[in-house]
Specification:
This protein has 205 residues and is an all-alpha fold. The chain has six helices and no strands.
């Protein structure tokens, strides 16, 4: 009986992280994107052609926008930890999760280190928009090894698309590439959340 209890402990811990990561992955995209888009709608000073999304963090509805970023940072860390429970502890998984956590810290810290701080703000934003999709790319081999070919392919597609949009989408302001990349990242985060919840349910069945 004692041996069974010891063996069950890692199983329960893994399921806990799958549940936390899954719920966070499903909740974070609509919640944070919804708040950001709402902030844009109620901000008459915002200009798609001239501004970055970060401009919202120093204007009339800064609290709403920065709260969305802070919530996104916390939930994204939980998503990353859930992905570790989903894919195991191989070195590529650890590297991918590490990139995701660093990106999540970046977007969370943007909520307090706003555009007024110039260079530190820029590097935190870069951490989110570069390291998060890089994390998705690093996770793909682990997905392929587990026979999750479709997931691996979509993870690569999401990573490449997000980085390409940020670096290559032509636009005078950075807001359009930022929002486009955020939509890609959010869609894949939501998909990971659904997969984690599905796995958690199967493990408890």
């Amino acid at each position: 009986m004692k041996k069974d209890c010891i063996m069950a402990q890692p199983h329960r811990e893994t399921n806990l992280w799958l549940w936390l990561g899954g719920i966070s992955g499903v909740v974070a995209p609509p919640l944070t994107l919804g708040l950001i888009i709402y902030t844009i709608v109620i901000s008459p000073s915002f200009n798609w052609h001239r501004d970055a999304l970060s401009d919202l963090g120093v204007r009339e509805h800064a609290l709403l926008f920065n709260s969305a970023l802070a919530v996104n940072g916390v939930l994204s860390i939980l998503v990353a930890l859930g992905v570790r429970a989903l894919l195991g502890r191989g070195w590529l998984t650890r590297a991918g999760v590490g990139a995701m956590v660093t990106g999540a810290l970046g977007v969370g810290l943007i909520s307090v280190i706003t555009q007024e701080y110039d260079a530190p703000h820029f590097w935190l934003a870069a951490a989110y928009f570069i390291l998060t999709p890089l994390g998705y790319l690093l996770l793909a081999p682990a997905m392929f090894r587990q026979g999750r070919g479709v997931m691996g392919t979509l993870s690569i597609a999401a990573g490449v698309a997000a980085i390409s949009l940020i670096l290559l989408l032509p636009h005078q302001g950075i807001a359009v590439p930022e929002l486009a990349a955020s939509l890609i990242l959010s869609a894949w985060t939501f998909s990971l959340g659904v997969e984690m919840l599905s796995r958690a349910c199967r493990r408890e069945a």
